[in-house]
Design brief:
With 430 residues, this protein is α+β, with helices and mostly antiparallel strands. It has two domains: 285 residues, no CATH class; 104 residues, Lipocalin, CATH 2.40.128. It contains 13 helices and nine strands. It has an eight-stranded antiparallel β-barrel. β1 and β2 form a beta hairpin. The longest helix has 33 residues. Keywords: Membrane, Transmembrane, Transmembrane helix. This is DoxX family protein.
């Protein structure tokens, strides 16, 4: 008879207390941080999360006495003060719940069934998240190629997160590599027999994500840390087996992976059918949505007609030619037209300013304005001469402008023209 790592009949008191806390902690985290993959989950979450936008700031002000009121909630950043307060709130509720549960339930010998179902919930949550993470890399949507503005930005002026995004966005191959690893992890976690391998891969993949988030100040530290903790939780059942195999050179018996079945057969069949429908839905929706998004604003999107970097040749303000001196701080040095209706102007003193950029190809007109000042706009008529010459004529407020520009060849950047080489006689580290 094959020896297996069967579920223990008796749990120690510390094991039961730890499990009670972890079950409540993970369950509450998932409820308050839905990954938004399933349809309508985000809409439903808005209804029960919205009251906490009042409760959490109140607790921060009246219980913790934070110096600044909480007015910003979860957005592109998942590391807001509100998010940290929510983690503290969840952990506190879980601790109180654990205390009450431990007092009320002293006779339970184990929580094997609850442990099994918590593992199912956690591996689906991590798996769904990993599929989402992976496909936006395989389709190269999360990390776009360096834009014209990014190409002329000095490394010293880049934010740590911007540097990480440029590093990842430069290489399509590296996006494939990391994306395939994340998708593989997600798929493995959907099946009991491959859960351990999926959790090991999840620990490595989520650990890498967490390291990038911490080391490059990416504001998704809380989620990535949670994914690492969840991967460790999924491995906890097999900790002894893994230690025996990897460190002690001892026999590692098969793990007990039999599912907890319902007595009624139709319930078991329904769950199996639901799992495969869910998996197919996740694959189709992720691929379809990401491909559609990539054609709208990713690398596969059509570049604007004026996309590129333009060097300013002459800059005439109110009929006076402004010399290209660093003391003329309002004179433009470069115009960088990017995608998604954005542009950047680099001044003579190397300062930059971001603009919303709207062009009409048929009318040959351009409107530019900053987010901070939507009143004082640049209105230009533009004319093109050949493939590289551009003339802007227009006004900003009461000032008239006449600007001649020369388009810069993006392939002249070393980052764009170096490419890949199997053979390097010497390191090319510039």
């Amino acid at each position: 008879m094959t020896e297996t790592n069967a579920s223990p009949i008796y749990w120690s008191a510390p094991q039961k207390i730890a499990f009670r806390f972890i079950l409540q902690l993970f369950t509450l985290y998932i409820i308050f941080n839905p990954n938004g993959v399933l349809p309508y989950t985000e809409v439903i979450a808005e209804y029960y999360i919205k009251p906490f936008h009042t409760l959490i700031p109140w607790l921060a002000q009246h219980v913790l006495h934070l110096a600044q009121p909480i007015i910003v909630f979860t957005n592109g950043s998942g590391d807001t003060t509100y998010d940290y307060m929510m983690i503290l709130f969840i952990a506190t509720v879980a601790a109180i719940g654990t205390l009450i549960w431990s007092i009320a339930d002293r006779r339970s010998r184990n929580y094997n069934k609850l442990f099994y179902w918590l593992c199912v919930i956690v591996r689906y949550y991590v798996g769904i998240t990993m599929l989402s993470y992976g496909f936006v890399k395989i389709i190269k949507l999360q990390f776009p190629s360096p834009s014209p503005g990014r190409l002329v930005q000095s490394i010293g002026n880049a934010s740590p997160m911007g540097l990480a995004w440029t590093y990842m966005g430069y290489s399509r191959g590296f996006n494939y590599f990391t994306g395939i690893a994340e998708v593989s992890c997600g798929l493995l976690l959907f099946f009991r027999k491959t859960t351990t391998l999926g959790a090991v891969l999840g620990l490595v993949v989520a650990g890498n994500i967490m390291a990038i988030n911490y080391c490059f100040d990416v504001p998704v530290k809380l989620l990535s840390t949670t994914l690492v903790l969840m991967s460790l939780f999924l491995l906890s059942k097999d900790a002894g087996r893994l230690i025996n195999f990897f460190f002690l050179n001892k026999t590692a018996p098969p793990s007990e992976i039999e599912p907890h079945r319902f007595r009624l057969k139709w319930k078991n069949v329904t769950l199996s059918v639901f799992k495969y429908i869910l998996l197919v839905y996740l694959l189709v929706s992720n691929i379809n949505d990401d491909i559609k998004a990539a054609t709208q604003y990713g690398d596969a999107a059509v570049k604007p007609h004026l996309y590129g970097i333009y060097d300013i040749q002459t800059y005439v303000l109110n009929k006076d030619t402004v010399a290209p001196l660093t003391t003329n701080i309002n004179r433009w040095r470069k115009l960088m037209v990017g995608a998604s209706g954005r542009a950047m102007v680099k001044k003579m003193n190397d300062s930059t300013e971001n603009y919303t950029f709207r062009s009409d190809i048929k009318a040959h007109t351009i409107v530019m304005f900053t987010d901070a000042d939507t009143v004082n706009k640049y209105y230009f008529n533009y004319a093109e001469s050949g493939k590289t010459k551009l003339i802007l004529t227009g006004k900003c407020g009461i000032d008239s402008l006449h600007i001649s520009l020369e388009k810069f060849d993006l392939n002249k950047f070393r980052l764009n023209n170096r490419g890949f080489h199997w053979i390097n006689e010497y390191p090319y580290n510039k």
